[in-house]
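$ fold --in a.seq
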Amino acid sequence: WNISNDEYLTIGKFEINAETEIFDDNLITYKYIRTSEWLNEIEFVDSPVLNKHAAMRSAVISNININKPVDAVFNYIADLGKRSEWMTMIKNTEIITGERLNQTGIVHKCIIGNNSTVLFETDYFEHIDDSYRIIETDSKKQNFAHEFSAIKLSDHSCNVQIQFLLKDNFIHRLMFNLMMKKKILKGFNQSLINLQNKFENEQAVSSS
């Protein structure tokens, strides 16, 4: 149906504001309402996709400094198609649901060293000022997750960190510490060295 601009603006009986401005030597009059009044009435509903990692704690942490702008480094880290280029245990990745862009709700399959597969769902993404963080959770049992983060150190360098998050369960953590922790840490350390070498080699080629 058709309604006038003034009738549309009065829906909800909010205050109408009118302003005039000069644009290209023409006087333009427009009306608006403040959406903050609407936002205050909207009940926040948390998405079920988010925070699947909330009950997990860090079990392994590895980090490295890379001489490359943080945006370039994190874009490469988040690119699922490039994971096998630098992460030691990953042979290939395949996106199961969603677009190619790695964002909240994307499910992808990792093919790891022994040709077994693990499904991960990206359930958290954060970009605040000069830092980035993305968390990909085991979508089947939701027992563990990988957290990738990058923080700007300067215009041409950043710190990259990988964490292995594990469900806060005594038995899970005990078995992990006994059987998997050293292997995961070794893999993370080598993966970050691969990442550092990749950008250093690019820089060497471009400056030669």
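$ fold --in b.seq
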Amino acid sequence: DVKINIIENLDQVVMTEHQLDELITIATDSIGVVNCFTFKQKKSKAYNRLKKGKVDIVEFAKLSDVHFRKWVIKRFREAGKKLDEQALKFFIDFSMYSDRNQQISLYHMENEIKKIASMEQEMISAEDLRKVMIMPLQMNLFSLTDHLASGDLKSCYEKLNDLMAKGHSEYELMPLLTKSYHNMLLGKVLSQKGYSNDVIKDVLGFK
């Protein structure tokens, strides 16, 4: 059996030179163990030290806009579905795959396409997509909320403008944002009162 160790966001961990040297030794000399390290930023001390230490580095990058478009067309064709130009543009824009600040992968897109392909009609319209593509909106509302909470008004307005440009109105977004802030405040209050995470999730309706 092979054991896999995963350390996420290693660049966010403060480490001494000695600790980094030990990490490189572990990464290169371990037998029967696969050590995986992830980074948020390539321009970090830890990333550069591992790279200089001859540690194998695999970079997972998003497809370019052109290649993502071709990939989407191919996947829908393989699923026996067709998108007109308007629907294709809607899918690409609404998925927000090309937004580098979003953790949306081809795996997420594959599942999204499978869900859409389960519809009976062969030709999929933009209106059909609007009815079923709800996850990206939820993810971007979380991002918008984070920007507000951190005081990053510039990113907040950019995200809000992006969502409205994609067809979401302020009448749709405000109730969702209000509910999100209500849950955040309620979760904080319950936590301060000593309630467990399981109880808080149950109160907020999270599974």
